[in-house]
Amino acid sequence: MSIIVDRHQTDFLYQQVAQLIRDMKQQGTLQAGQKLPSLRVMAANLAVSVPTIKQAYLELERQGLIEAKSKSGYFLKAMDLLAAKPKRRRMLNQPVAVQKQSLIEQVYDAIHRPGVVPFGIANPIAASPTVKALSRTMRRVMSMSGQSAINYGPMDGFAPLKKQLIYRYLDFGIGVNFDELIITNGAQEALAIALQCVAKPGDVIAIESPTYFGIIELIESLGLKALEIPICSEQGIWLDDLAKALEQHKIVAGVFSTSVNNPVGSFMPEANRAALVVLLESHEVVLIEDDVYGDLHFTEQRAKPAQYYSQKGLVITCSSFSKTAAPSYRIGWMIAGRFAKQALRLKRALSCSAPLLNQWTLSEFLASGDYDRNLVRLRQILRSNKERMIHQIQRHFPIETCISDPQGGCVIWIELPVGYDATRLFHEALEHNISITPGSIFSASDKYQRCLRMSYGLTWTLEIEQAIAQLGALLKTRR
Ligand SMILES: Cc1ncc(COP(=O)(O)O)c(C=O)c1O
Fold first, then answer.
1. Beta carbon of 211 within 6 Å of any ligand 1 atom
2. Among 56, 291, 358, 367, which residue carries the largest CB count within 10 Å?
């Protein structure tokens, strides 16, 4: 065996060994049912200790990937970790005015209840907290800047942070002018400003179905209409459905996740991203790309933002540090391109500027390299959590449950068999102090009653496994 472990990585050696075995299974080097090398042979091959291998094997056993057979050793399980994926939905959608706020409010209440198991909140950094590094950095900023860091900041954002973001876009071959990039209060404000730059009440906005409920709320509060375009659980938006919708309706903009979708975790391939921009720009329709999960990919390469493919300047990119550093800092940004002047006016009218101390701290956090170091670790933990969660759901949920296989982010999309009701499960689970997100809030109409979203952006503990078993038990008693 020619695999190696690297003692300089931040991961523990046993985690690296476990990851190597997962990779070998995925690449087909190890086959289902195959016997793994003994602890001693594996330890000698990888030049690590026997207890390290033992710990890796125990971890994989806990995840349901391998099993110990008495007196024979460890074997790769025959069962495929990945369950059936949610199926393609054929939808004949019409633009609709949205009315979803009541259930969304109940979901927000649930996630902020003290002591709940937080499957309902998509907060990936809980899996690899940044709090120590950020507090250190913020203290340093306060002591070197004095009063300046708590003054009002510039409307368009703190220049050093803007420069760092512009520099990062250069890595994708995207040249951003300083004035085009505006720092906002999270991605949510960036999306709100983008929508107000291009649409007026009554206009039709194409959205993914299912999509992040914050987008649905925005559309509702701005008096717009939503036209749902179905997505594929692996590759994001179905482009042929979007093409048909563009022929049939007067759409002014599309709000789409161009990297990893929330709630399904699909990952739009490069070719589709390019084709999406060409398709929309050929109809003079603005693409508002939501890239908040871009840095949390499990794929080898991060998705190049769709902005890269724009020929006509009709792409507005929105993103934030909420999923990768600190959601409470409320720091996001937009590349507003040709809409920059209008966007800045709206930004000033809505919230003046974004918190300067938080921008300054994030700018230092990026400059120190701590941001990128934590990202590597965060992605690894999230990927491992995803596999654990899929395994536990397969163990405890009804047999015909379909589960998405996220290619990034921190959430999983589950479709229960016919006859089950996910909103009822949401209410019942809450009585047991477990929060989940019912599927219907990810649709502008009333779709996805049998679906739910669960977050694996958390620290994995026995309590988490018990909560999944509890959800399974609730499902078994009710149909
Ligand atoms: C897909 C998506 N877009 C936008 C947002 C809003 O991000 P922020 O917290 O930076 O406003 C979220 C937050 O959950 C999200 O999941």
1. no
2. 56
Tell me which of 108, 123, 211, 212 to substitute to probe ligand 1's pocket, judged by most ligand atoms within 8 Å of the beta carbon: 212
330 CA closest ligand 1 atom index = 10
CA-to-CA dists, residue 77 to 23, 385, 401, angstroms? 15, 19, 20
Phi-psi region of 382 (alpha: psi -120 to 50; beta: other; left: phi over 0): alpha
CA of 292 to the centre of ligand 1 (A): 6
pLDDT exceeds cutoff 70 at 79:
no
User: What does the pLDDT average to over 399-421?
Assistant: 95
Ligand 1 atom with the shortest distance to the CA of 185? 11
- Check residue 10 and give its pLDDT: 67
Tens digit of pLDDT for each residue in 54-63?
Answer: 999 988 887 7
Ligand 1 pocket member 122 (CB < 6 A): yes
467 CA distance to ligand 1 middle (Å): 26
What is the pLDDT, as a whole number, of residue 397?
Answer: 96
Report the topology of domain 131-370. Answer: Aspartate Aminotransferase; domain 2 (3.40.640)
Start-end of CATH 3.40.640.10 domains in the chain: 131-370
Domain 99-127+378-477: CATH superfamily is Aspartate Aminotransferase, domain 1 (3.90.1150.10)
Give every CB contact of residue 80 below 8 A, 6+ residues apart in sequence.
32
Say how many Å lie between the CA of residue 69 and the centre of ligand 1. Answer: 45
Question: According to the model, what pLDDT value does residue 82 have?
Answer: 47
Indicate whether residue 327 lines ligand 1 (CB < 6 A): yes
> What are the phi and psi torsion angles at 87 (to 5°)?
-85, 165
Q: Answer whether residue 1 shows pLDDT above 50.
A: no
Cα 207 to Cα 91: distance, rounded to the nearest angstrom: 13
